[in-house]
Amino acid sequence: MVDEKVTAVGPVRVHMIPTDKYKTNTIVWKMKAPLAKETVTLRALLPYVLQSGTADYPSVKALRTYLDELYGATLNVDLTKKGEHHIMTIRIDVANERFLPEQTPLLSKALQLLADLLFRPALDGGRFVTDIVEQEKRALRQRIQAVYDDKMRYANMRLVEEMCKGEPYALSPNGELEDVDGITAEGLYRYYERALAEDELDLYVIGDVAEEAVLTAVKQRFSLPDRPKRERASSVSVKPQGEVREVIERQDVKQGKLNIGYRTNVTYEDDDYYALQLFNGIFGGFSHSKLFINVREKASLAYYAASRLESHKGLLMVMSGIEPANYEKARRIIDEQMQAMKNGDFTDEEMAQTKAVIRNQLLETLDTPRGLVEVLYHNVVSTRKRPIDEWIAGTDQVTREDVVRVADKVELDTVYFLTGMEATEDGKTGV
């Protein structure tokens, strides 16, 4: 279904995905390192500084003008965490030159631009340009602050902070606000050199491309010295199951945010992963799920109610927006849905519908180059390799007993409630 060929060029894994499905060619560069307090904010800033200029195009304006010359090529950067890994992404989308009247070597130019962004950034006296670093520090502060202003995202972040206290996963991929001010152009450049020398490096090239020509270009432009292989850190939580923690936080908000965290004790690496996906789909992952129907539709207790998995860390998070006075009722009904899953209280129709939605969602994701890379990159983060056809077949084969077995492993860990300044129905005062 997906023809992925992986070739090592020094420490860079080059993933070639030849396809004539798209009219663009996509290049995606990923750098993976362990999440750590001392580096998380440096990493959150670094890709934005790198995309702000190269030696040849030393400003955002010059770089954007050059992208326009490449028939409107686009350049984007991103930061995510998967399990306890912090991942920087740089993506360039460029028109497939075969569809252009002039045979401009656009893919070759795009690969050269990526190499320049990575290895020939705009510098001033052997360090990053101070003005660029300061400008991107301001933008980073705004990105961090934006989470505090968006109460849905804020509640998600706070649940993870409370649930994973003392674990790297508690860190935000956008870094820590209090660490931004201390970053200097020199310090960031030193970290950049360290990241290039130590990170796991993956380059994806997707499109209607000549594989040998791309590999030749990569060997010429992405030459890096080999580095010792790192021991892979496990992303699976080893936190012992203790008492369920309840955290109530008060702010000047009208709508309460009830977020609940569970340890699934199953990750992408496990045989039970497909059953876990099906469990989540029936429980809260889709619009036909128990949370949506019973908490939002039937009981009218929530503005929204859904669940999502963190596949590499083994977490399940429930997110809901409720009237503050409905805290106890909403908790009770959510608990009832979880208990129903553990009891096998779901129909064959729910199983079949959820399998169909998972299959369609996966196929839709594969329809875009970005989605295709994200699905394939799971196989880099994990030691378990799951080909797409195996994923689809594995989902189809999940039985009711498999889902109940997985549900039985799920353990409630932390309840987080963001509410208004007034007391809830049971008089809780919170933090």
Automatic annotation (TrEMBL):
Descriptive protein name: Pitrilysin family protein
Superkingdom of origin organism: Bacteria
Pfam families membership: Peptidase_M16_C (PF05193)
NCBIfam families the UniProt entry points to: YfmF_fam
Record lineage: Bacteria, Bacillati, Bacillota, Bacilli, Bacillales
Domain Peptidase M16 C-terminal: from-to ranges: 183-356
